[in-house]
Design brief:
Radius of gyration: 22 Å
Shape: elongated
Strand order of the largest sheet: 1-4
Number of domains: 1
Structural class: mainly alpha
Strand content: under 5%
Length: 239
């Protein structure tokens, strides 16, 4: 049973840590997109506070510019034209590259969270012997909570739907469409995993005497960090 123990100083430390973790999580996610664009030879990339602009690839055939408009119109209408096979091959390559770029962000976030969770299990015996986590152990906890992005984005998507904005812009939505899967398919799986990770972290690795403080700090600090970065500071510091 959850003991109702509240530690003011711990709450302050965790509150600030959650704010910082939100910013680090968002920006490392964008770096995941950026890294894939570098691997594919893009140039002119620009990372904003909540998005990564891919720029243009070096290969002229993969650019979305006026040189391909006529061929794209003919290809889309099903009309045969010289070089259609080559165009189809290049279009497939482009679609693959953009899919991997889109996947780069979520994969980075989930990889970081998985590493954090594995570290917690690796040191589970030592953690089980304490009722007050050390600084290093808290770092493992916060790293594992990178998985919380999946829950956060699902909540945002539901709010957008409720507000009448039916167009889904999240990476997982775009990936599902690219694979011709149901729109919510990827998010359904990742959000379930995210909830499981959260449950394991809270009830297996957070000591009982720190648990309530951690939950309250996570809820308030996470929302505060998202508001500060996505609404107040991010647009000004990294427009």
């Amino acid at each position: 049973m959850l003991p109702f123990i509240f530690h003011k100083r711990l709450f302050l430390y965790l509150f600030v840590s959650f704010i910082l973790a939100v910013v680090v999580g968002i920006m490392s996610h964008e770096c995941g997109h950026w890294l894939v664009t570098r691997c594919f030879g893009f140039h002119g990339q620009h990372i904003r506070y909540n998005a990564t602009f891919y720029g243009r690839p070096d290969d002229k055939w993969l650019r979305r510019d006026s040189t391909l408009q006529a061929e794209y119109a003919e290809f889309s209408s099903g009309v045969d034209f010289p070089g259609k096979g080559e165009y189809q091959k290049l279009q497939n390559t482009r679609d693959r590259d953009y899919f991997l770029i889109t996947a780069g962000g979520p994969l980075e976030t989930m990889l970081a969270g998985t590493i954090g969770l594995l570290l917690l299990f690796l040191y589970r015996k030592k953690i089980a012997q304490t009722d007050w986590l050390s600084f290093g152990q808290w770092l493992m906890v916060f790293l594992s909570l990178f998985w919380l992005r999946e829950i956060f984005d699902v909540v945002v998507a539901v709010i957008r739907l409720w507000a009448g904005r039916a167009w889904m812009e999240g990476d997982e939505f775009l990936m599902a469409r690219s694979l011709h899967w149901p729109t919510w398919s990827i998010f359904t799986v990742t959000s379930i995993v995210s909830l499981l990770v959260l449950w394991v972290v809270i009830f297996r690795f957070i000591p009982a005497r720190q648990r309530l403080t951690f939950i309250l700090a996570g809820f308030t600090g996470g929302l505060t960090g998202a508001y500060l970065w996505l609404v107040l500071l991010g647009p000004k510091l990294m427009p």
